[in-house]
TrEMBL record:
Signal peptide residue numbers: none
Family as reported in the entry's similarity comment: Belongs to the AB hydrolase superfamily. Epoxide hydrolase family.
Keywords recorded for this protein, A-Z: Hydrolase
UniProt keyword annotation of Hydrolase present: yes
InterPro entries named in the record: AB_hydrolase_1, AB_hydrolase_fold, Epox_hydrolase-like
PANTHER family xrefs: EPOXIDE HYDROLASE
Record-annotated AB hydrolase-1 domain positions: 29-134
One of the record's GO molecular function terms: hydrolase activity
Name of the protein in its database record: AB hydrolase-1 domain-containing protein
Annotated Pfam families: Abhydrolase_1 (PF00561)
Length: 232
């Protein structure tokens, strides 16, 4: 972690946080894009590995996530904002071309960026979300009403569910749910947070130190922007 440096960049009136490792200006650049419930910290091991291999690694916190400022109206945030922010970051840092490594909703940002700004992308690597053709996503036709994405898309519902708990517990519960083999689906009389009991242990790869880091930053940022992008 000592190899990772932090800075803030002014983008569209917001101070966006980026973490950086391997500062050789002539090196190939790899930009890591997080998903939910993640932050730059999710890529810390990969950043060090990439930097050690001779690349320059950059991991931004998306607007409204981690140490980055939230937009004035989180409910109006879109994936296009994420694409525009990424372009502004590359321009500010003077980076003509980069590799994009992304997971979860970060993959959608990477795909959109690569289509809109092909000349700025050396390659795209994604985890968890395949490239999808344009058009509405219709998973709700095939999954029960209690599917977590359907629940979190409903304005106010996740806010009420999360609001019963502190941010650290919300992050804890989500990581436990996302580490299971079953898709998180709540019965009609329960909310998504009710699917995890207080006695359920953390996944073996997710430490209490990790939880404290995530919890502190989500306590700062809240979940308003995170529920808008990717879920709404």
């Amino acid at each position: 972690m000592d190899q990772i440096e932090h800075k803030f960049i002014k983008v569209q009136g917001l101070n966006l946080h980026i973490a950086e490792a391997g500062a050789d200006a002539d090196a190939h650049v790899v930009v890591f894009l997080h998903g939910f419930p993640e932050i730059w910290y999710s890529w810390r091991h990969q950043m060090v590995g990439v930097a050690t291999a001779g690349f320059r690694a950059i991991a931004p916190d998306c607007r409204g996530y981690g140490l980055s400022d939230p937009p004035a109206e989180p409910e109006k945030t879109s994936f296009q904002d994420m694409v525009d922010d990424l372009l502004a970051i590359l321009d500010h840092l003077g980076l003509a071309k980069v590799f994009l490594v992304a997971k979860d909703f970060g993959a959608l940002t990477a795909y959109m960026f690569a289509i809109q700004h092909q000349e700025r992308v050396s390659g795209v690597i994604t985890l968890g979300v395949p490239i999808l053709p344009p058009g509405p996503i219709e998973f709700h036709k095939y999954l029960p009403e209690g599917f977590y994405i359907s629940r979190w898309q409903e304005p106010g519902r996740a806010e009420a569910d999360f609001g019963r708990l502190d941010a650290k517990t919300v992050v804890r519960n989500i990581y436990i749910l996302f580490s299971r083999s079953e898709i998180p689906i709540a019965p009609e009389n329960k909310e998504i947070m009710d699917l995890v009991s207080d006695s359920t242990p953390l996944p073996p790869w997710f430490t209490e130190e990790d939880l404290a880091a995530y919890g502190a930053l989500y306590e700062k940022s809240g979940f308003r922007t995170a529920l808008q992008v990717p879920y709404r």
